[in-house]
Amino acid sequence: MEYVVAAVILLVVLVVGAVGLVVPRMRRKELPPPPVPTVPAEEELPPLVEKAPVAETPVTEAPVIEAPVIEEPPVAAPTPVVEKPEPTAGRLVRLRARLARSQSALGRGLLTVLSRDHLEDDDWEEIEDSLITADVGVEATQVIVERLRERVRILGTRTVAGVREQLTEELIAALEPDLDRSLHTAPHDGRPAVLMVVGVNGAGKTTTCGKIGRVLIADGRTVLFGAADTFRAAATEQLVTWGERVGAETVRGPAGGDPASVAFDAVKRGIDVGIDTVVVDTAGRLQNKVGLMDELGKVKRVVEKHGPVDETLLVLDATTGQNGLEQARVFTEVVDVTGVVLTKLDGTAKGGIVIAVQRKLGIPVKLVGLGEGPDDLAPFEPAAFVEALLGETA
Ligand SMILES: Nc1nc2c(ncn2[C@@H]2O[C@H](COP(=O)(O)OP(=O)(O)OP(=O)(O)O)[C@@H](O)[C@H]2O)c(=O)[nH]1
């Protein structure tokens, strides 16, 4: 019995001991693993800005993949195309239709009255009014009507054709057909002819310079332009463009520079390279008559250091009518005008201004402008002009 008790106790001790050994081991196995720091210590953190990793390849140093260079043939600077003008002979006749379009009212009106059976005082007054309205001017109108009246009375003309013929003759006579209308553009004494173009702003000076250059070149001359209208920068550009179109060199100066020195340089260049005709464009601001006189007078004096100016052309806008005549007079006081260019005759029904200009200024109209086109400038021919003025209507 003692042995049994001792065995039981031993067994209990063994069991308890075994449990004591096994349980702690099991408990240890169930424990979570020791915490692992997920955030590094502060000193190991990268600084927020300064030490942030920076792309170290600046744009300029970025590797550039170079495209293969394709050798292109050199592009030649565009050479301005020099245009070929229409022949000048008979230009006024060719442009007659354009002139007649705006003038025919005058011709129709006059011929209608003149072909009445009996011309009374009222009819003659009507004729006078028509001529004055067409800018012929009061004085010239009175002379024309007086002479016409006399002829009709003596000859007893009544047919439209007869009256037209007499009116034509009187108008041609009023245009003084014997005046010298030639342009002095031929070189002489081993130097170029010098043409100065004057007139108020917008009358068509620069355009006229270009058209004249074109006509001269068409006739086989060499031409050089002097851009002495330094007042309006666009005028210089306009002249340079004309030069390129017609094949003429343009001498220019700085914008706002001294016009006289540009004109001087142009003529000097013309002499040096053996040009036939130098055409000098000038400025025409009229706000200040004294200033204009000084400037134009100076241009002329300075140019004449090379020799006399051969032709001074006054450009007048036909659409300004009698007002234009007053402005024109200022120019004739400053420079010795040798001829008038009457522009924009295509834009007025008052062709009679040609008669008034000649009578009032005592200067022949040498050229007429009949449009903006490069060939719309014609030598003035009284007979062809009167034909156009009276139109086809009879
Ligand atoms: N219809 C018509 N227009 C013309 C004629 N002549 C010139 N013109 C036009 O008139 C305008 C003025 O001409 P410009 O040659 O620039 O005048 P400008 O006198 O040189 O003027 P500034 O340089 O300002 O002094 C332009 O638009 C020309 O095309 C003409 O005979 N008929």
Explain this structure.
The structure is a single chain. With 394 residues, the protein is of the alpha/beta class. Among the domains are: 91-174, Up-down Bundle (Four Helix Bundle (Hemerythrin (Met), subunit A)); 193-337, P-loop containing nucleotide triphosphate hydrolases (Rossmann fold, 3-Layer(aba) Sandwich), CATH 3.40.50. 48% of the residues lie in helices and 10% in strands. The protein is built from 13 helices and 8 strands. The chain has helices at residues 2-30, 91-94, 96-114, 121-133, 138-155, 160-174, 205-218, 233-246, 259-273, 289-303, 321-334, 353-361, 382-390, and strands at residues 193-198, 223-228, 249-251, 277-282, 311-317, 339-343, 365-369, 377-379. An 8-stranded mixed beta sheet has the order 3-2-4-1-5-6-7-8, sandwiched between helices. Strand 2 (223-228), helix 8 (233-246) and strand 3 (249-251) form a beta-alpha-beta unit. The longest helix is centred in the first third of the chain and has 29 residues, at 2-30. The chain is extended, with a radius of gyration of 48 Å. It starts with a helix and ends with a helix. Mean pLDDT is 78; it is low at 18-70. Guanosine-5'-triphosphate (GTP) binds next to helix 7. Guanosine-5'-triphosphate is lined by residues 199, 201-207, 229, 232, 235, 284, 343-344, 346-347, 369-372, 376. It is found in: Cell membrane; Cytoplasm. It is a peripheral membrane protein. One of its GO terms (biological process) is SRP-dependent cotranslational protein targeting to membrane. Pfam families: SRP54 (PF00448), SRP54_N (PF02881). Residues 364-377 form the SRP54-type proteins GTP-binding domain.
